[in-house]
Please model this.
Amino acid sequence: MIQLFHVYKAFGSRNPALIDVSLTVRKGEFAFITGPSGAGKTTLLKIISRAEKTSSGQALVNGRNLNRINERELAFLRRRIGVVFQDFKLLPRRNVFENVALALEIAGFPLSVVRKKVHQTLRYLGLANKEDCYPPQLSGGEQQRVAVARAIINNPLILLADEPTGNLDPDLTMEIMALLREIHIRGTTVVVATHSQELLRDTRRRIVTLNKGRII
Amino acid sequence: MKIAFFGYFVGQAVANISNNRLVHLIGVGTMAIAFLIFDAFILIFLNLSHWTEERGKLLTMSIYFKEEPGGVVLQNIKTELLHFPGVTIKRFISKDDAMKSLRRQLGDKAGLLDGLGENPLPASLEIMVSSDKCGDSIPYQLKTRLETNPAVDEVQYSQEWIRRFQGIMDLIKIVGVVLGGLLFLAALFIITNTIKLTIYSRKDEIEILKLVGATNRFVKIPFLIEGAIQGFLGGSVALIILFLVYTIAIARVDLRIGFASLDIIFLPTQLMLFLLLMSIIIGFVGSTISLGRFIRI
Ligand SMILES: Nc1ncnc2c1ncn2[C@@H]1O[C@H](COP(=O)(O)OP(=O)(O)O)[C@@H](O)[C@H]1O
Ligand SMILES: [Mg+2]
Model:
């Protein structure tokens, strides 16, 4: 599902954020990317969603070479990849409902379907009473859940979650992790980036560790 | 594109405008100024060409009499002239009048005329012929016709006058098109940069839309609709201001040049609609140009 071959990523002339990273995540897998802050976890996820291009090396996602993909194909691929961004990337001037609905509207679903699915998903994430709120009015944890809602609403092939529990208290962390497991069970390939050792303690899932841009 | 989708984009555009009122207000204001300059230019150009055309179509004709005509002769000629469309009688100049005006022109040297026994100047009737209402051959027809009248000595009119105005008109048209084109480009440049401002204030939003899988088209369409709406508003404001200025200031001025009083006309409805359409198109095209750079994510 995700294949990286000798990926380098440099921002300007600084030490590269990723150095010779090769990684394969199979369809239906659930993998953690971990490592200290600044190790390159976010950059790795950005490469996979083509928010950043590789400096060198190849990245293949769902069989598409990200170095050779046109604008339209990329848009269609991104609709099949749900991303929970570390900084959420919610639209501050659209309310919770509209933010979540966006993913479906972009994919061209009719309004009736959009309404139904958004209500359903927001209820599922305990945000039913926040539909009309704007992101700046929400707590960090609530914004994070809105970001999760937007990422999963379209039943993506791949879910990339960047520190999805970073702003949550232990209870909500458990809930979000349970949610990710459920999405995984429904068939989505899940990649979670986290610096939290807590989260990884009892897991039997695959753990990829990055340090200073290299897989160790 | 499906109708429902168009509705969605219009809704987005309207929401964006109401969410970014200040930026849009600045945008509409700038556009209004740019369009106002352009529209004012069109108005001036229109009046200039309208005016020269009117002038160019009028020619003065002098009918010289063999002798001082009696009242009946004069009346007969006047009646005959009225059968010709587009003919206006300006004034009758008697032999005495002609002499007086010659003396006035000579000033100090008027004494030269004292030696003349009899007044050698002919009496004449000045008329104006508008070629608007009749063909180009009318002046010539009129001339031959009048010259058969036994009281009439000669009929003169100036063909050059028409040609000179024709030349001025052609020049005005060329200058107008060039200047208008430059103004148009300047307006487009200003507007493009104003729209960039609008887009720049929302570049985060564009980035997010793209990351969630929006195609360029999906991102662009609301901006294009916004641009068109801005263009429409800016264009309307420009025309309203121009009209107010016209009614308050210009229409009150009574410009008298030569013998004819000069009207300043406003833009005809069709031209206004055309300018409004142009404003909408410029808003649309301006958005298209401005978007190019921001959408590559
Ligand atoms: N857009 C960027 N411009 C410049 N440097 C960046 C950019 N994004 C990340 N970096 C650098 O790349 C390195 C890895 O960053 P990141 O992938 O965010 O690490 P992590 O998510 O593991 O904390 C850091 O040194 C960071 O400063
Ligand atoms: Mg990070």
